[in-house]
């Protein structure tokens, strides 16, 4: 029987979905929970049967207890979507993650799974942090490691919060809208993360995650139009404006977000077949995501908020 899997980021959208996937498979799960975490998300973890452990990536002492007795650690934590006072890319995505790696080594954790993202164009703090943590994970000390590099999350970047509003039938299109992306849902990333623990072909692997077909934003809009029978309004943000925003800001968080928007506009194509060969998960095409949105089915981010 597999031992405890400790999850950092369990109250976040992706981490909460990882916990759900693990528990659905009967795993014992321990999640890091901050005192300031959303109480509804904490209660949802408890209802799933997740052991909640008080702590914070910014408090290294709490990470030793999180990792004690754990067979595996999966970390999805980031300050990008759930920033709280004191959180920054430096304190969470870099120093906090590095502290977690060291705590897991000291505890004798057998398998460390780190969720990152594929190499993107440009230099920006979030990417620098991800690469530094990847290198530290691979440096040694763990019998097994898995680096997961999902592309853009459809639940996030094709949501109303980012200007893709299915209710109002309008889209905020970055660049020309033709840049192709192998979109992936949070749920499918969680399935890869959970599957990596029991799949030897994923051990020691660096796996890029995405759906098989790369689709541009405008093609996603057309899918919404075809399936809903409604014409969508389009608002374009020129690539030049995105570049100007990226180059003008020095704030680490804003620069990283601007870089992500620019890369989305340019496109992020990858080959997802090695990941699917390593872990028996087939990411659903973006058309399925569109159908779920139009049908009003709850997405991972909505479930995590409940």
Automatic annotation (TrEMBL):
The keyword Magnesium does not apply. Keywords: Photosynthesis, Photosystem II. It comes from Corallococcus macrosporus. InterPro entries: HCF244-like, NAD(P)-bd_dom_sf, NmrA-like. This is NmrA family NAD(P)-binding protein. It comes from the Bacteria. It holds the Pfam family NmrA. Residues 6-244 form the NmrA-like domain. SUPFAM superfamilies: NAD(P)-binding Rossmann-fold domains. Signal peptide: none annotated. The keyword NAD does not apply.
